[in-house]
């Protein structure tokens, strides 16, 4: 439950992609672009911290590793919800972006343990 759940939490940082939005395609948001996200474990046995490079495109959170299923949405208001899964592990996160920064919480679980913590994001480029 180490790296996978942390990533899940991270992506979680953008933090469950099932928002109450219309079924229409998301429009470009002021938060589109490259982001660096620090995931920190506050409770549980997951590794203490990881940093990941995520991308937001048209309000959708993506990650370039196909071994993880990442689904996340960023509303134009900055509200973030993300879900991540890999193998028998999953995590979700929520929070808010404002300008070039963001923060929120995440929680994850596997068949043997649970972890939770916070995340911080910073726009890159």
Q: How does the SSE layout of this entry go?
A:
Layout: H1 3-13, E1 33-43, E2 49-57, E3 60-62, E4 69-74, E5 79-86, E6 89-98, E7 101-109, E8 114-124
Antiparallel strand pairs: 1-2, 1-8, 2-3, 3-4, 4-5, 5-6, 6-7, 7-8
Report on this structure.
The structure is a single chain. The protein has 125 residues and is mainly beta. The chain has one domain: Beta Barrel (Lipocalin), CATH 2.40.128.120. Helices cover 9% and strands 54% of the residues. It has 1 helix and 8 strands. The protein has one helix at residues 3-13; strands at 33-43, 49-57, 60-62, 69-74, 79-86, 89-98, 101-109, 114-124. It has an 8-stranded antiparallel beta barrel with strand order 1-2-3-4-5-6-7-8.
What kind of sheet is the major sheet?
8 strands, antiparallel, barrel
Overall morphology: globular
CATH level 3 topology: Lipocalin
- Report strand order across the widest sheet: 1-2-3-4-5-6-7-8
Share of helix among residues? Answer: under 10%
Number of strands: 8
- Superfamily at the CATH H level? Quinohemoprotein amine dehydrogenase alpha subunit, domain 2
Distance separating the two termini: 31 Å
- Total domain units: 1
The topology string of helices and strands comes to HEEEEEEEE
